[in-house]
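[09:14] KT: can someone run the structure on this one? pasting the chain below
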Amino acid sequence: MKNILIADAGSTKIEWSIISEDGEQENAVSTHGMNALMAEPNEIVALFKKVGAMLGQDESFQEIHYYGAGCATPAICEKIHSAIAEVWCAGTTLVNSDLLGAARALHGRTPGIACILGTGSNSCLYDGSTISANVPSLGFILGDEGSGAALGKRLISDAFKGQLPKNVRDKFLDMYELTLADILDYTYRRPAANRFMASLVPFLKEHLWNPYVYSIVREEFIAFIRRNVAMYQGSHSLPLAFTGSIAYHFADILREAADSQGFKVDKIEKSPMPGLISFHSETKAV
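[09:31] RB: done, C-alpha cells below
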C-alpha cells in the first residue's frame, strides 16, 4: 500500500501526517515551525530526525510532499530536499512552497485565489495545478498585510504613539508588562521579531468589543484585499479562499472586509492539512 508523508511547514508550526493511499491518516504530529530560507542545513536535518522519532517511522515512503514557508527558489527547495534524503528514503520527494500547499488544500484542482493569513500573509492566483501569479508578500517589514505580525505591529505602534484608547492601552501594557525598551529590543535586536508581534494578537481578539480595536483588524484585512487579492486579473470572478490562524479566528471580520471591497469569501480553513490529505489521496496526486 502506498505510504505518503505530508508536511505543512509554517514559520510558527509544522504539521506532519502519514497517510495511506486511500486517504486514511495513520499518524500525525506537530513541531515548532521553520522558515527554509533562514534555517541552516544541520538545523533542518536535526528537526527531521526528531520528527522521524516522533512518528516512529524509520521505513521508507513512496511519496514525501513538503510544503514550506521560505521555499521560494529552487536552491532553497533543494536544501530541504537534501535534508529529507539524509533522514528518509522515498520513491518521490517533492518540495514546494507553503503557498502552493494552501492553494491545493483550498481549491483542489479548481482555479481560484488562495490566501494565507497566519504569522505572515501571502496570496496567489492558482490555475488548478500550479501558481500562475503571485503578488509578493514582501515580509512583515514591507508587506504581510493582514497577518499576525502586521496586526501586532499596528497594536504596538498605536499603543506607544497614543492612538489606542487609554483604557485599552493601559490593559495592553499591564497584560504584557512591556516597556518601550522591551519593544525596541524584541523588534530590532532579538531574532524572530515577526513571531513576537504575532504573539500579541490574542489581545486584539479579546478586545474586539472596542470599536478602535475592531477597526485595526478590519483595516488590516482591507489592506490585504486591496494590495493583494484585487491585483489578480479576474479576481472578482474567481473563488476566494483563506487558510491560517488569523483568517480562522477573525473569520467574521475578514468576510466583512472582503464584502466591503466587492469580494465574497468562499472558504476559510484553519489548517491546510485536511485539504492536502484529500488532494494527495486522489490517484492523480503529484
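[09:33] KT: thanks! Residues 27 and 190 are 35 Å apart (CA to CA).
[09:34] RB: yep, looked fine to me
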